[in-house]
């Protein structure tokens, strides 16, 4: 049987692990002087942290049909053609996204990721190559700037009806550093962001609309024209959703520059800024003009999805203000601090005007609630 | 609506998290001086390790119908009555087992667990109380001797068709210590074990036989008599499967006593001893008399399951030699070392007799292979 055609169930655990280690072992060897025992070597992995460093830990699960759909992984060409078969790249993208969202949480503390542990559950019918490609995707996420020291320290393989992956990311924060904290934004601070806003949400809308229950509807001549004019933008938005590349250097850079409040935007700017405001006991005033300007760039996506101009503006603003899984980094910086490269000002932190910390904005956007249950 | 009756889907993520934190926050507060930021406080948890310590990491997923069945969680009374409804205790036991198997891997390195990260996926129809009870079970596992410093550092909640839990355990090993290693067994070492052998496998056989597709078959008068005589043993075996309590102090104790080779028995003595032999490049000679003696205590379980005497002996020996999920700790100690409390000698390590490292035993047991895929 062609190796590529055997399933994980046919191959068995040992063969799958061999396949995985062919990718993981050389990857770890290239960067892992701090990894004394890696995956499969013993009961647990053994790492040597930098002397005096603090330990940063986060975990996140991504499940098929809850957090992603295989049919999302199609290029803009397929979008234009109305064709949405999961392509060869899909498992690699799942690996990249699962790793990236955890790496982003480490960066958002101002820390550097040092290790990932990966538990992968998948149907026995998945091809052996799926697992290898998934791990290639994890490796790709770790090759982003800011994750140079991150190794794959351990993992687990199991069987389930759908693909589900849980990644735990481990990071280091220098001794004595408070990190970038939700509770550390102070009145007078500048609110700044590194990374785009709204693109992942716009990309999700494109992917979901085009891969609906009918399996991809044909597109109109108007859509074809918008697509031709904005092909790059559409691709960028879809990739923001399917293959996020969080700015992993931004957290440590913000901390080094004197930033103090901070978090990544995983549930949308409005919700996450509200968390920052609550934890710090402050009001956060958003710069409505700047955000409106950022939204403008996304209007062609809303138009492609059939929204008339006024609605398109509103839709684009909702993506910018409420879009989740964005992995942009929100930071607050004391007045006078020069923002590090990549950050732009989107508001400011003030004393809370009454008893309740708030996010203050003149923009009215649609309900952007989200619950994982 | 009665709080106990609402489901996690009805309650929503925030209410479930509140429920979880009512258990986790006071637990962490009692022991977590090293936990600067715990679950939900920020993008990631922040811990201060002991100065100079090495970091030990492991992860493991446990899924319903793959790794456990709800109907297992019944007491011996229900076994006797042939009734197998999952009782109230079931979610707590799932939490204990999921945590214990990860804590065991940390101990098996000779390390002390310091933190768990818990990702829980469950159907929206599960009662809110299920989640709270699950966390109570995790707390119970951490209250075992040897896990005194372990906190719950973070977690994730998600939706899925069946219950699935991934736990990552973090531990500390003193600076400069090699830990208990698979590759460190040396000729002349005594092979010793801490914790029972075969009980979890015997318990699994009881649970599976009694909770078969028919949902619990009525038991015969002979079975009733065996049950009455051996009720305590049967209960101990079933609990070894449903609520394992690995000897978490054994790993650090082995290391302190001068032990060097070691691992926990998660896939059965024969398979795991073979891994130890291979990694260390040695032969491992098992003490067949000692193991036969240990097996004898489990014969009543085999008899209960309808095996005639000769088969019962063979079955019990297969449990002792091949039973997985045992979480006993295997260690090797240089000659002359006094075994720490709780360890007993079950064999010895020798130079390998020919090119291939082997486990040497006169016992012939049934096929004990296992693949997680």
Mind explaining what this structure looks like?
Two copies of one chain form a homodimer. By secondary structure, chain A is an alpha+beta fold. Chain A has two domains: 3-173, PurM-like, N-terminal domain (60s Ribosomal Protein L30, Chain: A); 182-360, PurM-like C-terminal domain (Phosphoribosyl-aminoimidazole Synthetase, Chain A, domain 2), CATH 3.90.650.10. In chain A, helix 1 runs parallel beside helix 4, helix 3 (90-107) packs parallel to helix 4 (128-142) and helix 5 crosses helix 7 (231-242). In chain A, the strands form three sheets. A six-stranded mixed beta sheet of chain A has the order 8-10-7-11-9-12. In chain A, strands 3-6-4-5 form a four-stranded mixed beta sheet. In chain A, strands 1-2 form a two-stranded antiparallel ribbon. The first copy, chain A, is flat. Chain A has twelve helices and twelve strands. In chain A, helix 4 links the parallel strand 4 and strand 5 (151-159). The mean pLDDT of chain A is 91. The longest helix of chain A has 24 residues, at 8-31. Chains A and B meet through helix 1, strand 2, strand 3, helix 3 and strand 4 of A and helix 1, strand 2, strand 3, helix 3 and strand 4 of B.
């Amino acid at each position: 049987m062609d190796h590529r055609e055997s399933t994980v169930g046919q191959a068995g655990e040992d063969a799958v692990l061999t396949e995985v280690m062919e990718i993981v072992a050389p990857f770890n060897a290239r960067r892992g002087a701090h990894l004394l025992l890696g995956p499969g070597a013993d009961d647990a992995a053994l790492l040597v942290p930098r002397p005096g460093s603090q330990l940063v830990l986060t975990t996140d699960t991504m499940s098929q049909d809850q957090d992603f759909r295989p049919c999302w992984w199609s290029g803009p060409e397929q979008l234009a053609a109305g064709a949405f078969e999961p392509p060869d790249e899909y498992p690699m993208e799942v690996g990249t996204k699962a790793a990236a969202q955890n790496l982003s949480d480490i960066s958002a503390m101002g820390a550097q990721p040092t290790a990932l542990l990966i538990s992968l559950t998948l149907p026995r019918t998945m091809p052996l190559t799926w697992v290898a490609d998934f791990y290639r995707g994890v490796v790709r996420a770790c090759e982003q700037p800011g994750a140079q020291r991150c190794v794959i320290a351990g993992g687990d393989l199991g069987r389930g009806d759908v693909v589900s992956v849980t990644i735990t990311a481990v990071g280091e924060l220098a001794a004595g550093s408070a990190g970038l904290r939700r509770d550390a934004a102070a009145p007078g601070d500048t609110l700044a962001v590194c990374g785009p806003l709204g693109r992942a949400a716009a990309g999700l809308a494109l992917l979901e609309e085009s891969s609906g229950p009918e399996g991809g509807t044909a597109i109109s001549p108007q859509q074809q024209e918008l697509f031709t004019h904005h092909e790059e933008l559409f691709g960028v938005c879809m990739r923001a959703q399917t293959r996020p590349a969080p700015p992993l250097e931004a957290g440590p850079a913000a901390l080094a520059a004197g930033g103090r409040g901070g978090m990544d935007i995983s549930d949308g700017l409005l919700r996450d800024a509200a968390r920052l405001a609550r934890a710090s006991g402050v009001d956060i005033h958003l710069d409505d003009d700047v955000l409106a300007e950022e939204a403008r760039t996304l209007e062609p996506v809303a138009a492609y999805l059939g929204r008339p101009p006024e609605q398109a503006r509103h839709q684009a603003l909702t993506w910018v203000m409420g879009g989740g899984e964005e992995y942009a980094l929100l930071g607050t910086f004391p007045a006078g601090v020069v923002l590090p490269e990549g950050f732009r000002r989107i508001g400011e932190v003030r004393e809370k005007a009454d008893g309740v910390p708030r996010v203050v904005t003149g923009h009215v956007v649609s309900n952007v609630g989200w619950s994982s249950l």
